[in-house]
């Protein structure tokens, strides 16, 4: 190759032929050596290293370098270099360097310690810490056998300090068993033989364990053990910030039990150099002397501290992204044959990958092979390699690394997933494609991901290779296409040139009157696009234009389940950050259309930029369709102001193809009617004082920040997440960070100073709150002589969740919370989210349960939902109060009502445990009560069983008094409700109970000063702490962030916890089915006993069940009993079976009841059959075509489901009016005949 010859010429000065001079000049700025040749300033820039063409030691040219050896290989950013150049410095040895002092104080504050000391490296930081604690030579420290201090720091504590390390085995998660640590501590009475133990060392996160994190609880236990024996605790916190982010725990909490911590700034944070050790002031004073002794005393060290300070500010928020990319890398590596990764062990930014023995390649061979492709890694041991992600590694680099490993192991093509082997398309071929594109009026685009490789391989200038193209881009991956037929490639709009997709862009020049028809006709020809990544935007799609040059619509097809990802991507536009709201929506049910076109919809939604369509600025007004003007009292809050933005698009879920969504972008530009940019950083007329300088804070970011503050998360963690959110819109900037810090601090102060008492009088305070929060109130009725107090609360977010999760699903009510303690009891309406957890969507504060009052607030709530989505409908409503009025539910929601036993079960069990001290008596009474409930289906008299229960337990006086006074009067009501209403399942009951328990914990922790007797206190608690808690739970689950919050949220319900128990952990008593044993998953020495298995009234001896709750052990045992014939079915199943049996009972012969029963039965069977067909079929068209003929009229007889050949739109408006008039006249004729 000519470039190899040119390299030789450069090194030895040989003559170059004139034919090679042009290629030399053309390529000289792209080539660099991978060896020890000095680099140019441009090459030293860390932001450009992954985009350079380079040569390896073997002389092979690679396009990019991906360095995954360590997170210490990062290059200083431009901001770091500027900070180093402009740093304020002085002599640090004398203690006068201001930048060093500022950094040390900041790290000490973050770690919750008194003082800090900057040192050149983490190794020196650990050495100084150990020697300062162990000032007597011959002292001993307890340390992990795979810790960094013991293995990777040259034994400095022994060779320099004379300190003896006593190792304890590290577990796979980096911890050391507490028993082993305690056993390793020397007995002081034998100091004549043994060295004296003075220090325990931990490492967090643990590098040799793959970046595993030590929990705060574990560190606390080690700290207690150290204090017990008078020892000190030191933490090697080389990646302590990674551990904090991964665990979702503030960093000061992780090191709270430690006396000293060494914090490395050049690893996860990406500083060029330096570490800081923190501890008490006396410790730092001694450490400073040791630093000078060891040669770590530097003079104008502020130059280095300035870069470290920038790293702390800029890169802390990027650690979560590093962890996410590490998990992506682990998941992809685990798919490669010959490699194995323990994905569960990847907690931070380190990935360990094992090479299986059958791969026939050693770690040394693999490292050399990968280096040829520009991928740099390090070995971790025999047949094990290590990857470390840092902030200068993109997601694209991760996928490139995966493709390199695939090539190393399997010899696949140059790019992962490509089957053309990096073949280059010639100039002549590209010209032919260009000619065909012109012939059909198309445009040619070349994806030049490897265009330089193609130019080098063919020896052809790049401009000649792309001469026929209209546009060229450098993408990272192409579209696979194996067919070399030029005509076929042009028609499919895709071909390849060294992994280069050539994608012509279509533009159809239609007039406006026929534009919609053109869309309808072209839908079958449009490709379905599914861009990679979690989110994507309009810029990631190839749009087909319909209309003319003045006005057109952009159309594309995407999978329906990616619509949310598209909307999120559109909201994250850097130039125009916004949200999109649903301006209009409609729905159809499947099978409702007899004739349909290609663009007919199952669901239709019009999304509009939330800065429009109204314009509340100068010259603007409210749309005629609006009933009220949105709140604009706070003019400085720019996102809440409507600016008349015209950007909007339509999403249609296609009737004929339900898995596909049709996107019709009517206007992509965020401009007002005058054509001016009306919001975002480019808006010249921003609203409010200093709005141009204030960063955009969306409602989502604001809600996230408020939720974290309400939940008591430390301010530094809140600030880090807040900055991460706003940097999606405006990038990283020192001023932005400063303003964000002010915003978070101010918001925190406002929240801390806020109070529920807006007035000394409770009712007056409620009235003020309602006046200020009208958007969050759907019904309010003040106390009067004739009307009781009712307050219905539903925030905008709760309304969205009710529409999202309640439509065609279930709702439930936690009916009477706080009936004894609160001034007004609380009723909560719940929906079941994607994980079947109970999610509060409305709170009703009132004491009345009268039917007229319930109907008022229930109708107001129903009307509010229908104002947003007229097609919204709930399929079932779960109630837990047998005394509640169910007629309003049936009348307003038009759905079946189910009864949940969770409240009755909880009340019975809690009071039995409270009134009876003998656990055997508790079990028997609870079992007998369950048998009474089950007797409602076998025909026996439950009240005889109640009398027998009273006689058998006559010695339990406390229980019998409560039983007769409280339960006996209600038994008939309870049993009647269970007999007449279908019963809810244990999963639903467990979810409602989990919400009830969480509500109790949140509300009853602030009962001082009579707060429970104020309604404004209850409102304040609900709308701040509880609302924030559920918002953060859903955000953590859907965005895969705040991992500790997400894991805690997922494990909220006993049903989910029961699913984590393996079947093998349950042992059934085969003799009399009296009990079952469940082996504890946390401690194998503990076994839980579940009495009366297979029943909703089973009783467990665990702590959670003894509090009256439905525990995971009972649910797990009942799951297994449900599959065994020897146990009776659950009450919900028996209730369902009873309903079916009652429907099938034969009425009186030759009666109307027989006809009605037959008709209902056939109707149910037909609906069930259709539902089964729809669920089992992947093609809705097949079902529609197989439907029987239905004659709807004498004229125009047609087959149901056969697509009409008529045009979608009539030719003019006269036809529309005439057709509507004809329909009206036909309706009048029918009415006249009936009259």
Overall description:
The chain is α/β, with parallel strands linked by helices and 1235 residues long. The chain has eight domains: 2-64, no CATH class; 78-314, Type I PLP-dependent aspartate aminotransferase-like (Major domain) (Aspartate Aminotransferase, domain 2); 318-410, Aspartate Aminotransferase, domain 1, CATH 3.90.1150; 427-505, no CATH class; 508-623 and 636-667, no CATH class; 699-753, no CATH class; 762-901 and 989-1049, no CATH class; 1154-1188 and 1199-1210, no CATH class. The strands form eight sheets. Strands 4-10-9-8-7-5-6 form a seven-stranded mixed sheet, sandwiched between helices. Strands 18-19-20-24-23-22-21 form a seven-stranded mixed sheet. A seven-stranded mixed sheet has the order 25-26-29-28-27-30-31, sandwiched between helices. A hairpin with a 4-residue loop joins strand 19 (544-547) and strand 20 (552-559). Helix 25 (715-730) crosses helix 26 (734-753) and helix 36 (1015-1039) crosses helix 37 (1043-1050). The longest helix has 25 residues, at 1015-1039. The chain is globular and about 100 Å long. It starts with a helix and ends with a helix. The model is unreliable at 1-61, 411-420, 475-515, 618-640, 684-694, 1190-1224 and 1227-1235 (pLDDT under 50). Pfam families: Beta_elim_lyase, SWIM. Pathway: Amino-acid degradation; L-threonine degradation via aldolase pathway; acetaldehyde and glycine from L-threonine: step 1/1. It catalyses: L-threonine = acetaldehyde + glycine; L-allo-threonine = acetaldehyde + glycine. Threonine aldolase involved in threonine degradation to glycine. May play a role in the removal of L-allo-threonine.
């Amino acid at each position: 190759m000519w470039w190899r010859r040119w390299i030789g010429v450069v090194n030895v000065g040989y003559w170059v032929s004139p034919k090679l001079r042009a290629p030399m000049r053309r390529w000289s700025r792209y080539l660099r050596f991978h060896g020890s040749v000095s680099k140019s300033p441009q090459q030293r820039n860390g932001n450009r290293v992954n985009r350079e063409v380079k040569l390896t030691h073997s002389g092979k040219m690679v396009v990019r370098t991906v360095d995954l050896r360590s997170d210490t290989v990062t290059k200083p950013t431009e901001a770091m270099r500027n900070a180093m150049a402009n740093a304020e410095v002085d002599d640090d040895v004398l203690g006068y360097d201001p930048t060093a002092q500022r950094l040390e104080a900041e790290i000490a504050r973050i770690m919750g310690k008194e003082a800090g000391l900057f040192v050149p490296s983490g190794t020196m930081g650990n050495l100084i810490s150990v020697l300062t604690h162990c000032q007597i030579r011959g002292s001993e420290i307890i340390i992990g056998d795979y810790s960094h201090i013991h293995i990777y720091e040259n034994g400095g504590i022994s060779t320099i300090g004379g300190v003896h390390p006593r190792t304890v085995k590290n577990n796979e998660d980096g911890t050391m068993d507490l028993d082993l640590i305690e056993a390793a501590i020397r007995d002081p009475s034998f100091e004549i033989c043994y060295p004296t133990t003075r220090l325990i060392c931990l490492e967090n996160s643990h590098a040799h364990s793959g970046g595993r994190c030590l929990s705060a609880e574990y560190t606390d236990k080690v700290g207690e053990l150290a204090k017990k024996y008078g020892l000190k605790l030191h933490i090697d916190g080389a990646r302590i910030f990674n551990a904090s982010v991964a665990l979702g725990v503030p960093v000061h909490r992780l090191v709270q039990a430690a006396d000293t911590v060494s914090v490395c700034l050049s690893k996860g944070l990406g500083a060029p150099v330096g570490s800081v050790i923190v501890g008490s002031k006396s410790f730092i004073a001694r450490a400073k002397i040791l630093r000078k002794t060891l040669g770590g005393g530097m003079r104008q060290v502020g130059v280095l501290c300035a870069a470290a300070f920038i790293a702390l500010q800029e890169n802390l928020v990027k650690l979560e992204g590093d962890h996410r990319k590490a998990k992506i890398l682990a998941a992809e590596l685990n798919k490669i044959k010959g490699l194995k990764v323990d994905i569960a062990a990847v907690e931070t930014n380190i990935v360990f990958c094992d090479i299986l023995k059958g791969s026939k390649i050693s770690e040394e061979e693999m490292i050399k092979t990968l280096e040829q492709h520009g991928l740099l890694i390090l070995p971790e041991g025999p047949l094990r390699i290590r990857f470390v992600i840092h902030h200068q590694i993109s997601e694209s680099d991760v996928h490139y690394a995966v493709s390199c490993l695939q090539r190393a192991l399997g010899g696949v093509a140059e790019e992962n997933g490509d089957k053309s082997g990096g073949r280059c398309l010639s100039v002549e071929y590209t010209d032919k494609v260009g000619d065909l594109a012109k012939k059909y009026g198309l445009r040619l685009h070349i994806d030049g991901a490897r265009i330089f490789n193609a130019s080098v391989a063919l020896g052809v200038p790049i401009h000649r290779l792309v001469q026929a193209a209209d546009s060229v881009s450098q993408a990272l991956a192409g579209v696979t296409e194996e067919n070399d037929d030029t005509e076929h490639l042009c028609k499919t709009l895709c071909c390849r040139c060294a992994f280069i997709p050539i994608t012509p862009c279509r533009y159809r020049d239609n007039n406006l009157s026929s534009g919609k028809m053109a869309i309808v006709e072209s839908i079958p020809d449009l490709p379905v696009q599914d861009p990679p990544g979690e989110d994507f935007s309009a810029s990631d799609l190839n749009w087909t234009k319909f209309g003319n040059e003045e006005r057109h619509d952009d159309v594309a097809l995407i999978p329906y389940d990616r619509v949310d990802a598209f909307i999120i991507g559109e909201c994250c536009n850097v130039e125009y950050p916004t949200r999109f709201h649903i301006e209009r929506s409609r729905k159809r049910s499947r099978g409702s259309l007899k004739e349909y076109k290609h663009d007919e919809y199952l669901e239709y939604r019009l999304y509009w930029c939330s800065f429009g369509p109204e314009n509340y600025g100068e010259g603007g007004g409210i749309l005629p369709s609006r009933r009220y003007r949105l709140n604009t009292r706070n003019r400085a809050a720019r996102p809440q102001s409507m600016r008349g933005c015209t950007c909007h698009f339509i999403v249609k879920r296609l009737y004929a193809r339900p898995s596909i969504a049709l996107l019709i972008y009517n206007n992509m530009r965020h401009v007002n009617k005058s054509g001016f940019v009306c919001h975002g950083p480019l808006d010249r007329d921003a609203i409010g004082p200093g709005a141009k300088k204030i960063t955009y804070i969306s409602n989502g970011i604001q809600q996230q920040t408020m939720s974290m503050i309400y939940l008591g998360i430390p301010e530094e963690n809140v600030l880090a997440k807040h900055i991460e959110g706003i940097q999606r819109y405006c990038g990283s900037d020192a001023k932005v960070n400063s303003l964000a810090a002010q915003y978070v601090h101010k918001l925190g102060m406002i929240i801390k100073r806020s109070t529920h008492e807006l007035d000394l009088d409770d009712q007056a305070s409620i009235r003020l709150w309602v006046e200020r929060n009208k958007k969050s109130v759907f019904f309010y009725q003040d106390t009067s002589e004739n009307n009781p107090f009712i307050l219905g609360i539903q925030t905008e977010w709760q309304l969205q969740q009710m529409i999202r999760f309640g439509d065609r699903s279930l709702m439930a009510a936690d009916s009477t919370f706080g009936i004894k303690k609160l001034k007004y009891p609380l009723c909560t309406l719940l929906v079941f989210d994607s994980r079947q957890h109970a999610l509060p969507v409305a709170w009703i504060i009132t004491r009345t349960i009268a039917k007229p009052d319930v109907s008022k607030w229930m109708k107001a709530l129903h009307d509010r939902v229908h104002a947003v989505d007229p097609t919204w409908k709930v399929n079932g409503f779960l109630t837990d109060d047998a005394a509640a009025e169910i007629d309003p539910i049936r009348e307003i929601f038009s759905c079946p009502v189910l009864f949940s036993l969770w409240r009755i079960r909880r009340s019975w069990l809690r009071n039995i445990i409270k009134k009876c001290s003998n656990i055997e008596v508790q079990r028997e009474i609870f079992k007998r009560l369950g048998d009474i409930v089950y007797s409602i289906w076998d025909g026996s008299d439950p009240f005889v069983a109640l009398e027998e229960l009273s006689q058998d337990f006559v010695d339990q006086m406390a229980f019998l008094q409560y039983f007769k006074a409280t339960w006996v009067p209600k038994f008939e009501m309870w049993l009647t409700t269970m007999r007449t209403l279908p019963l809810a399942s244990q999963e639903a009951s467990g979810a409602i109970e989990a919400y009830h328990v969480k509500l109790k914990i949140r509300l009853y922790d602030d009962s001082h000063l009579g707060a429970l007797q104020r309604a404004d206190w209850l409102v304040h608690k609900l709308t701040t702490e509880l609302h924030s808690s559920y918002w953060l739970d859903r955000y953590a689950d859907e965005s895969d962030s705040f991992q500790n919050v997400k894991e805690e949220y997922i494990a909220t319900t006993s049903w989910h916890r029961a699913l984590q128990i393996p079947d093998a952990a349950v042992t059934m008593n085969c003799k009399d089915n009296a009990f079952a044993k469940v082996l504890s998953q946390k401690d194998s020495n503990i076994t839980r006993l579940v009495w009366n298995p297979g029943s909703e009234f089973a009783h467990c001896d665990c702590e959670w069940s003894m509090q009256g709750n439905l525990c995971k052990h009972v649910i797990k045992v009942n799951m297994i009993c449900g599959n065994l014939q020897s146990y009776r079915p659950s009450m919900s199943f028996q209730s369902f079976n009873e309903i079916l049996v009652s429907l099938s009972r034969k009425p009186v012969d030759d009666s109307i009841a027989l006809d009605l029963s037959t008709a209902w039965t056939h109707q149910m069977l037909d609906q069930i059959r259709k539902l089964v067909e729809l669920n089992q079929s992947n093609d809705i068209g097949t079902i529609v075509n197989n439907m029987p003929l239905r004659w709807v009229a004498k004229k125009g007889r047609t087959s149901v489901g056969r697509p009409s050949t008529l045009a979608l739109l009539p030719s003019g408006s006269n036809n529309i009016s005439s057709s509507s008039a004809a329909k009206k006249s036909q309706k009048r004729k029918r009415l006249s005949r009936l009259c």
